[in-house]
Write a structure and sequence with these properties.
This protein is of the alpha/beta class. 26% of the residues lie in helices and 21% in strands. The protein contains 14 helices and 28 strands. A nine-stranded mixed beta sheet has the order 2-1-3-4-11-10-9-6-7, sandwiched between helices. Strand 3, helix 3 and strand 4 form a beta-alpha-beta unit. Helix 7 packs parallel to helix 13. About 2% of the residues have low confidence.
Length: 574
């Protein structure tokens, strides 16, 4: 099992090279990796029983713990170190980069930039015997990877695995990822603020004014309407690539997911070298490579077009989530949607004249929609804001909490040039407040809207490949207002079939929410058993370095696969 230790953050008004360190719990929990958390005070007593250590932050360690860490590494332990130096310059093979010495000085921070893997020729082969051509941690990176801040370090004896570019794409000659063998063990140091980068990309900046539009005219976000994309932090030039067949750039590299993958590959790399049989609770049941989700915003509430969409979904044989706007459909159509197996959800409107973006409007609309859905309809758990409207920072999440909305979809693309993962992820995630507290509302970003209206149909293939590569959610949005067009409706049916052919199942927002929350109840027992507080049928368990059963490659490593039915309150022996 992985051992996690988070060191205290610096005092106020001191430079921070690592932010949101507690967000590591969200990252590991979603990844399904078993771990135990130790306080810095408890680390000395437990370190002799640890093989794989992950630390976040920095601190001055007493000499006895420094000696223990040296013994831990020399005897085969692996240490993954996020933005720490601990005054262990010789043990880590690193030293602090020269720092500014004026007012407010402290550790030198990295600022904003891009990680670039170093070529294999510059790496010592002894460091990565699993691969002769590239390092197993950085091998999937094809282009520079955007980061936000970190601790500036220099190598003395550690081998740099990656260097960096500055925010303008210029080389800095500053390494940001290091590997250092120590005896039979090794330490891998990320100087990047990994947790802070993921949070910053996923949640963006607080929205108080228009964002800056794309220079090619594809995303004129400065439109006088405040929306989630106005707070996005990824770069129009460096973080987009042309989607094949579309002639238009899109965010096809989910930056936050790539940072997650780097950390997971580091954990598996260390566990493989140490021959640790590390179990992982896979994202999806039945070893699915990813899942698909389709939502519909019912703008206009035209019953004729609503019935036409129902016909298309029956042809496609999928169940979807209908985000209903006021005035809602009539009772007959709402009942038909529900009886067909689809989910009724909410679509908060602050675009229509006279409807301000405020909690009072939210309260009124949610209350009226729940009444319109009727007593036989389960209380809605999913919401998407009309036009992806967004103001402030956490307001929408707080409003969701108040009314029992557990899955929001309002972060995403409202302009064609924003298509793809402009918030860096194809996975559902729990957001975090500035003070580090996690908010109990899942966010599932909306990467595109109606194909043939918002973007060319060829974009679908790129989005599908991203979902498969990162094992997340392929989320498509189709409006009933458009699907009565033959080209738009046809693309819906074709997309549904393509996703199925690729091995994906189509889930509603309610299903996604229930599954992800049930996964988070799983507890790994010391006797190598699993116990969940909610049912997880056909849960998939991956075993790194496992020796029995079928195998699958995930994150570049081979795992054996076991499928088990987890029943609430019952333990299952692995």
């Amino acid at each position: 099992m992985l051992t996690l230790c988070i060191f205290p953050e610096p005092p106020l008004n001191r430079p921070r090279t690592l932010t949101y360190p507690s967000y590591i719990h969200e990252i590991l929990s979603h990844a399904g990796i078993p771990y135990q958390t130790l306080s810095p005070a408890d680390l000395p007593a437990q370190l002799p029983h640890t093989k794989l250590l992950l630390t976040l932050g920095d601190a001055a360690l007493d000499p006895s713990l420094q000696s223990q860490l040296q013994t831990f590494l020399h005897t085969g332990g692996s240490w993954i170190n996020l933005a720490g130096l601990f005054d262990l310059h010789d043990l880590l093979g690193l030293r602090p980069a020269p720092s500014y010495q004026g007012f407010g000085a402290g550790a030198r921070t990295l600022g904003e930039g891009y990680l670039i893997p170093l070529p294999p020729s510059s790496l010592s082969s002894i460091l990565h015997p699993l691969s002769s051509s590239s390092h197993p941690i950085t091998s999937p990176l094809q282009k520079p990877l955007h980061f936000f801040n970190g601790l500036a370090l220099e190598s003395t004896t550690a081998t740099p695995l990656a260097s960096s570019l500055d925010v303008h794409g210029r080389p800095t000659n500053s390494p940001v990822l290091f590997e250092h063998p120590v005896g039979a063990g090794r330490v891998i140091t990320f100087s990047i603020d990994l947790t802070g980068t993921i949070v910053h990309v996923q949640q963006g900046r607080s929205v108080t004014r228009d964002g800056v539009p794309a220079p090619d005219g594809t995303a004129p976000v400065s439109d006088g309407v405040l929306k989630s994309g106005d707070g996005a932090v990824l770069d129009w030039l460096f973080d987009r690539d042309e989607a094949p067949g579309t002639g238009t750039p899109a965010f096809l590299r989910p930056v936050a997911d790539l940072w997650r993958d780097l950390l997971l590959r580091t954990i598996f790399h260390c566990a493989s070298l140490a021959k640790i049989n590390l179990p992982v609770l896979w994202y999806w049941p039945r070893s699915l490579p990813a899942v698909a989700h389709m939502s519909h915003d019912t703008d206009g509430s035209d019953p004729v077009k609503g019935h036409r969409l129902l016909e298309l979904l029956a042809e496609a044989d999928i169940h979807t989530t209908w985000c209903v706007i006021l005035p809602a459909y009539d009772n007959d159509l709402l009942t038909s949607i529900r009886l067909a197996g689809h989910e009724l959800a909410t679509h908060y409107d602050s675009m229509t004249t006279g409807l301000d973006f405020c909690s009072a409007q939210w309260d009124r609309q949610i209350t009226e929609l729940i009444a319109a859905f009727g007593p036989d309809t389960p209380r809605p758990v999913t919401n998407k804001n009309h036009y992806l409207r967004w103001e402030g920072d956490m307001d929408v999440f707080d409003w969701c909490l108040k009314h029992g909305i557990q899955l929001d979809q309002s972060k995403g693309a409202s302009k064609t040039g924003e298509a793809g993962y402009n918030f860096g992820t194809c996975h559902p995630y729990f957001p975090v407040r500035f003070n580090g507290d996690t908010v109990d509302v899942l966010e599932l970003a909306t990467p595109t809207q109606d194909l043939h209206v918002f973007a060319k149909e060829e974009l679908f293939d790129s989005l599908l490949q991203v979902a498969l590569r990162h094992h997340g959610v392929l989320h498509l949005l189709y409006h009933p207002a458009h699907t009565s067009r033959d080209d738009v409706g046809g693309s819906l049916v074709r997309s549904a079939a393509k996703a199925k052919s690729a091995g994906l199942e189509w889930w509603t927002g309610r299903q996604l929410n229930s599954w992800e929350r049930a996964r988070r109840t799983v507890q790994w027992q010391s006797d190598h058993s699993l116990r969940a507080s909610a049912n997880l049928p056909a849960a998939t368990i991956l075993h790194l370095n496992g020796t029995t059963g079928p195998t699958v490659t995930r994150w570049g490593f081979n795992f054996s696969v076991t499928t088990v039915d987890l029943v609430a309150g019952k333990s299952v022996q692995l």
